[in-house]
Amino acid sequence: MAKIKAVFFDLDDTLFDCSGSLIDNARKRAAKAMVKAGLPCSSKKAYSLQVELFKQLGPMENIFDRMCNLFNCPKDERRKFVKAGFKAYNSDDVEKIKPFPDAIPTLKKLRKKGLKLVLITSGIYERQSKKIKILGLKKMFDLILIHDFEKDVSKFKKFEKAMKELNLSSRKVIAVGDKVSSEIRMANRLGMISVRVLRGRFSKIKPRNELEEPDYSIKNIELLLPLLKKVEKRLPKENGLKVVAIGGGTGLPSVLEGLKQYTRNITAIVTVTDSGRSTGELRKEFGIPAPGDLRNCLVALSESEKLMLDLFNYRFEGHLLKDMSFGNLLIVALAKSTGSFMKGIRAASKILAIKGKVLPSTAQSVHVCTELTNGTLFTNEDALIQRDVLPEKIAKRPPIKRVFLKPEAKILPEAKKAILEADLIVLGPGSLYTSIVTNLLVNGMKETIKKSSGKKVYIANVMTQVNQTHGFTLSKHVEEIEKYLGKRVLDFVVFNSKKPSKKILEKYFAEQSFFVKNDVSLNTKKPRAVGADILEKPVFSNKNLTKQQLLRHDSKKLGAVLIRLIT
Q1: Minimum mean pLDDT among 27-41, 98-112, 540-554: which range?
Q2: Is residue 338 within a helix (H) or strand (E), and if so which, with residue range?
Q3: Which of 184, 231, 232, 235 is nearest to 206 (CA)?
Q4: In the prediction, which pLDDT does 47 show?
Q5: Residue 539, pLDDT score
Q6: What is the spatial distance between Cα 336 and Cα 330, in angstroms, rounded to a whole number?
Q7: Is the pLDDT of residue 246 over 70?
Q8: Distance (Å, rounded) from C-alpha 261 to C-alpha 203?
Q9: pLDDT of 217 over the 50 cut
Q10: Angle at 487 (CA atoms; ends 481, 488), nearest 5 degrees
């Protein structure tokens, strides 16, 4: 049985009652401070307004700001009143408080089991420190971190810091708290086991998306002890979770990077139909499958030093080897020196010390061919993409009718074995036809996926691609996957639920690329649609960033969502 190594706790309404006299006195202090600052009412009225607005709006609203609305306060005065109320409410004047009766006994029992205990709390530093001292909790924890509202940017950083300091794997950590938008969301994002305590002000707040859904809910802390046994029975053995990720392009490496923190048993099955630019030249010269997407996946799963990774990704300049990747050239050299493409990939895997396996979907040199609805036929991937044609012109092109491989190709026995043994099979993200469907066209691939008992997940793209999915909604993407895989085979469809900013979307609009609209019912049983914020935070400091560098899947978020679907 796998073992939990640590438990992270929130403080307020998790280990002690923060909803009784403590909040009541804080409201009274805030009322006096706001009236003293000039709010045109009595302290009694300011107090009763807080109580009424809280009942109406709940704990997620800025009550002090709403109070100012009632008095039509000018902007400058509003800031002054809100600041005064907030400062008084969060002052370090802490009344006598006690832990919940079951808190200390539970913490002691968890320590006896050899678990590391971490306390991560948010608030004004002095106030939270005083609470911890009064409650007598300091000696109970291996690590205490305070997310200071006045200084710290993110509570999430405290979670990461605790894991780093105690050398913890996220899937061996239970995070306990009462707020779905805070500690539960952060735990899920990191791939921890999230436990919600249904106590206090936030107990009625409903999760807004998949990342806010707790793995478990309990009414009090003492229920953690029986829950611990249940959790450990469901945990996969160390490095035991078997995952297969199928795709190509820049999307598949993000999935691999996100999953490798949870398991060593990862097999990447990669498309080999790329025929563009330097890769196309290597294919013509040496008659091999495309090495580029395989190289990217080898780097994603590598545990080598950064210098080696940079070397594999290095592209030459000049005329003779212009735009050639060193990694691609090395794979070709290894294939020729060892006598086969597969032996070359295995040799490259050893050089990069990868965690898992990287396999081509077929060892044969094949091309993906495309027929449009008007009968136009493209006989390779580069012809379909039409890099040198204006996006506006491609957008007017007839849609794709079908895709097929030429010549026909067989699935690798090693890839077939990995799929049949997999606990989780991931398709995408990536170009619909040239990164995902092209793998499904390999003889034996879709049949093997259907036969496998592993959960099947499709990760949808965030934006449409003018040369493949122009005008596609989420349901159209799923429809095309099912056309080549079969209906009712997918268990889940994961899509990004957070729309990018207008500034970013404008860059995509210029190339006829649009946000993929979700029109799949969230209530369907199969496949079940799972929405989550799975994008990296964009950085605009570099003006030369490509579109792909602006909108990228966050590997950590993606990994956490995928692991939750299987465990």
Answers
A1: 540-554
A2: helix 326-338
A3: 184
A4: 93
A5: 61
A6: 10
A7: yes
A8: 32
A9: yes
A10: 115
346-361 pLDDT, tens digit each: 999 999 888 899 999 9
H or E stretch at 384: helix 381-385
CA distances from 272 to 225, 325, 336, 359, 371 (A): 50, 16, 17, 10, 19
208-217, 306-315, 534-543: segment of lowest average pLDDT: 534-543
> What are the boundaries of each domain within the chain?
6-16+112-221, 21-89, 243-566
| CA atoms of 440 and 102, how far apart (whole Å) | 54
Predicted pLDDT at 517: 92
Structure tokens at 473: 């909604």
**Confidence grade of residue 305 (pLDDT, cut at 50, 70, 90):** low
* Structure tokens belonging to residue 541: 């400091």
Does 40 sit behind a cis peptide bond, omega within 30 degrees of 0 on the bond before it? no
CA dist 384 and 382 (Å) reads 5
- Residue pair 522/531 in contact by the 8 Å Cβ criterion: yes
Digit-coded pLDDT (tens) for 54-73: 888 888 788 999 999 999 99
Fold match, 6-16+112-221 / 243-566: yes
Q: What is the mean pLDDT of residues 451-458?
A: 95
Q: If you write DSSP's letter for every residue of 427-464 in order, what string do you get?
A: E-SS-IIIIIIHHHTSBTHHHHHHH--SEEEEE--SB-
Cβ(127)–Cβ(94) below 8 Å: yes
Does the domain formed by 243-566 have CATH 3.40.50.10680? Answer: yes
For residue 404, list its beta bridge partners.
369
- Rounded to a whole number of angstroms, the distance between the first and last alpha carbons of the chain is 14
Fold annotation for 21-89 = DNA polymerase; domain 1 (1.10.150)
CATH of 6-16+112-221, one of 2.60.40.10, 3.40.50.1000, 2.40.50.840, 3.40.640.10: 3.40.50.1000
Cβ-in-10-Å burial (0-12, 13-18, 19+) of 155 comes to buried
**Mean pLDDT for the chain overall:** 89
Per-residue pLDDT at 309 exceeds 70: yes
Average pLDDT on 127-151 reads 92
Paired strand residues for 427? 246, 458
Enumerate long-range contacts of 224-228, CB under 8 Å, 24 or more apart.
224/7, 224/106, 224/110, 224/174, 224/176, 224/195, 225/106, 225/109, 225/110, 227/195, 228/4, 228/110, 228/113, 228/174
Reduced to 3 states, what is the DSSP secondary structure of residue 406? strand
Give me the pLDDT at residue 452, please. 95
